[in-house]
Each structure stands twice: as structure tokens, then as C-alpha cells.
């Protein structure tokens, strides 16, 4: 409709095409779809290259579910394809965390380097830093759902709420 207002799209064509509008939320809002999409793309690209379908390690899947995916499904597909193409021949049977591209792991956009900072901190600060990052990743993985996050990490929901408040984490949504 913005394009129509700008005069770059014909209004009659818009109404011809707009019989049944389909709204698909971005991948970052439906992280629970990521494992099925990854498995589909892995099988597809493995078959295309005539290699055995690799399994995806649990930590690699967590990283994929935690990433924001600004390019949505197309970006996820490209990451899976690139990972399979670049996997060393002796490691094609399993996609481990270290095979994923740096941007998915938070190393290409200014985020990474956390382990070096943790190693230089006192134990209490290092533990809090790790817990904060771990909980942010898990909350993102479950799209802000506190009940599902608490269940996965093995905490009571109320205890998780207290921990989040203590660590100053506010990026959640209620169940």
C-alpha cells in the first residue's frame, strides 16, 4: 500500500493479487520452527551433494535458535548450505558448533570475545556474566516464554524470575 501511495505499484494489480493475504512472522518470532527448517535444509543439501545427511549437534541447534536471523528463512537456508559445503570431509557426518559461521555465533558483529573477558574477571563476576548470557540465549531460544525456558533449564518459574531480576534481564514476555 505504501508503494501504491508512492505511485510505484498499480492499485488494481494490488487488489487482484491480494485475494488471500498471508502474513508470515519473522523467523526470530517463531524460533520453534528453526529445528524443523534446519533438518529440512540439511537433508536437502546433503542429498544434493550426495553426502550422508549430517546430524546437527545440540549446541549448534541452540546457537541457530538463538540467532536473530535478520534475513529470515533465506538466511538460515544459506547458512546451512554454506556449513555443509565448507565442512571438512572427515566431519561431514555431524554439524558441530565450531562449523557454524562466526556471525551466527556472535563473533562477526561485535558481540563475541566473551570468554577472554570472563577469564580476566573474578569468579563471582565471571559466573554472573556467564549466567546472564546463558539466560539471555535460552530466553531468546524460547521466544521469551519464561515457563518453557524454566522447564528447559531445570528451574522453577518463580526462581527464574528472581534470577532474571537479580541479573537485570528484562527481555522476556509472560507465558
Q: Helix and strand layout, with pairings?
A:
Blueprint: H1 2-5, H2 11-17, H3 34-48, E1 55-56, H4 58-66, H5 72-86, E2 94-95, H6 114-119, H7 123-141, H8 146-153, H9 157-167
Parallel strand pairs: 1-2
Count of distinct strands:
2
Binned, the helix content reads 40-55%
Computed CA radius of gyration, to the nearest angstrom: 20 Å
- What's the mean pLDDT score? 86
The major beta sheet can be summarized as: 2 strands, parallel
How many H/I helical runs?
A: 9
H/E element order: HHHEHHEHHHH
Strand order of the largest sheet: 1-2
Globally, the shape reads globular
Q: What structural category do the secondary elements indicate?
A: mainly alpha
How is this structure best described in words?
The protein is mainly α and 175 residues long. It contains nine helices and two strands, in the order H-H-H-E-H-H-E-H-H-H-H. The protein has a two-stranded parallel ribbon. Helix 3 packs across helix 5, helix 4 crosses helix 7 and helix 7 crosses helix 8. The longest helix is centred in the C-terminal third of the chain and has 19 residues. The two termini are 34 Å apart. About 3% of the residues have low confidence.
Amino acid at each position: 500500500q505504501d508503494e501504491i501511495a508512492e505511485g510505484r505499484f498499480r492499485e488494481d494489480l494490488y487488489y487482484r493479487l491480494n485475494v488471500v493475504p498471508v502474513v508470515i512472522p519473522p523467523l526470530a518470532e517463531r524460533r520453534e520452527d528453526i529445528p524443523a527448517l534446519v533438518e529440512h535444509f540439511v537433508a536437502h543439501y546433503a542429498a544434493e551433494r550426495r553426502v550422508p545427511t549430517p546430524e546437527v549437534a545440540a549446541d549448534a541447534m541452540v546457537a541457530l535458535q538463538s540467532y536473530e536471523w535478520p534475513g529470515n528463512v533465506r538466511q538460515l537456508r544459506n547458512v546451512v548450505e554454506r556449513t555443509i559445503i565448507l565442512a571438512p570431509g572427515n566431519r561431514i557426518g555431524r554439524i558441530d558448533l565450531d562449523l557454524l559461521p562466526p556471525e551466527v555465533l556472535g563473533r562477526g558483529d561485535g558481540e563475541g570475545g566473551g570468554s577472554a573477558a570472563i577469564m580476566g574477571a573474578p569468579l563471582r563476576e565471571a559466573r554472573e556474566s556467564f549466567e546472564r548470557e546463558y539466560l539471555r540465549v535460552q530466553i531468546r531460544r524460547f521466544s521469551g516464554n519464561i515457563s518453557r525456558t524454566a522447564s528447559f533449564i531445570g528451574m522453577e518459574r518463580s526462581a527464574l524470575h528472581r534470577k532474571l531480576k537479580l541479573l537485570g534481564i528484562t527481555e522476556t514476555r509472560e507465558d
